[in-house]
Each structure stands twice: as C-alpha cells, then as structure tokens.
Amino acid sequence: MAIKSFKRYEKKYLLNKTQYDLLIPKILNYMEFDGHCKNNTNYNIYSIYYDNDNNDVIRHSISKPYYKEKLRLRSYKITKNPEDIVFLELKKKINGIVNKRRIVLTFKEALDFLEKGIRPDTNDYINNQVLNEIEYYLNNNNVHPAVFIGYSRKAFFAKDNHDFRLTIDSKILTRRYDLSLESGHFGEDILDQNQYLMEVKILGSIPLWFTRILSELKIYNTHFSKYGTEFMNYTKEQLNIKRREQLC
C-alpha cells in the first residue's frame, strides 16, 4: 500500500471547442504533459462516489458549506481482477482549500474494507492514519455506492513548477445503476456537446502567463461540480417522472 496527500486550491473553467483548440498550443509553451498522458493522449478516470439514500453528502456539498467531505473509490483503468490497483480517497474542502487523503489498495482490499469492514493490514503509520480517517467516516456516515462518474482527461504540469497543475476533462459520463468499476465507461454525459471542463490546481498563485492566456481567450472562472451537476440532473429527472405520473 502507498499513500498520497494533497492540499491545494482548485479553480474551474468551462471551455468550448474553439477555446480548447487555441488553449492547448499556448499552454504547451509553459507546460508539459503529465506522465499518464502517454504519447500526448488522454487517459481515463473511473470513480464510484459514496452517499446515503437521501443523497445527504451531495446535498450538503452543493450548499457551499465551510467544510465538506466526500468518499470515493477510483481507478485509472477498468478493473479486471481482485489484484488490480485502486485508490480509496477521502476528499475534504475547508474554506476553499482542498485536502485529499488517498490510500492505494488492491480492488479486493478496497471492497473488503468498504463492504465487510475488513481493514487492510499495514504496519505503516501514515497508511494507518488514513485508514483511521476513512474508517471513522464510514462508521459515522451510512453511505454506499451512489454514483459512477467517469471521464477522459488530459493533464499538464508547469515546466518550472510542478505544483501548478492543469487538467482538461471531457466525456464526463455518469450513472446511478451498475455501480462497479468493473462495468466500464458509459452513462449520461453531463457536459454539452464540444464542451470541456478545465481545472487548475494550485498551491500558491496562478502564473501571470496563464492569466494572460485566459484573458486573451475570454475564459472565465466558474463553479462546477461533477457530482453536483449529476445530482441536479438526477433531481430534475425525478421531478419530471413524478409530474408525468400525476398526469396519468
């Protein structure tokens, strides 16, 4: 097992196809592709988000509280066997600062922990601290797999500062059925056609060269949550179903 901990600010932007096409060559003057982007291609991310029957986790999150947290199980490929590597993450946001606690497990270890309460065996102090946090969350929140969210990602690091990271996501597909990392990438796309979600992840200030590019291309900061958008779409769909039933 291994652990990573992240603490940063995140800013989000929605791009159209023209902005996207103009942006990439400009940022490549200052940035380089993430190691996951082999031969400059996109890579995929698959996540299962955990919530309760009343969707209290995401309801609380979209209310813009001072503190919020989400639990998710993530993979960078479609899991094929119990020994495939997955990432169990507790993502917290405190007054706008994102803190992500992550532990790397086998798929079997993760499911045994989440579904049966069987704690992975480790002698590492930091790994145990993260497991303690996730175990506490599970004991105090009656959550279960609620939503699948998968997408295609292109990622970059600044050449002179790897703490400045940029990701661009497309084909953000979601579903509330067949909630398994083994089932593949399908569902409802929450982005409009030819639309992209760009996220800037920073520890300090945004570089001046990047703000100039944003200004030139008229790209503006926005509020966008993948899970939040999925939930709003789901809520509208449920209301429409009820209205149709009342008319029958």
UniProtKB/TrEMBL annotation:
One of its GO terms (biological process) is polyphosphate biosynthetic process. InterPro entries: VTC_domain, VTC_sf. Residues 7-229 form the VTC domain. CDD domains: PolyPPase_VTC_like. This is VTC domain protein. It comes from Intestinibacter bartlettii.
